[in-house]
Amino acid sequence: MKGLLSVRNLQHHYRVRKRRIFSSDTRPLKAVDGISFEVSPGEMFGIVGESGCGKSTTARLLLGHLPATSGNVFFSGERVSAVFDANWRRMRRRM
Question: Helix or strand or coil: residue 60?
Fold first, then answer.
């Protein structure tokens, strides 16, 4: 982990109901499935793709607005999901 932002095998699966009249079963919908990348200080990075491909979900995961199904996001060496309260505000300002 050398980058300012490091993402390792990030996944987020939503639970969606199956379209059946008398069933309440759910199935996973893979919105983000195993992405990894690293952004170094001074580097520019963009996420592009078709509608519904997971761009907004990825951004929410990076900012900690959604919990990851699996994988890790590190900002300046700190795991984003492990930062709370005042430290969280400090980290968000730096993002």
Answer: helix
Cα–Cα distance measured from residue 81 to residue 48, given in angstroms and rounded to the nearest whole number: 24
pTM assigned to the model? 0.76
> At 90, is the secondary structure helix, strand, or coil?
helix
33, 9 contact by CB (below 8 A): no
Contact 75, 26 (CB under 8 A): no
The CATH-assigned architecture of domain 5-94 is: 3-Layer(aba) Sandwich (3.40)
Write out pLDDT tens, residues 41-76. Answer: 999 989 999 999 999 999 999 888 888 999 998 888
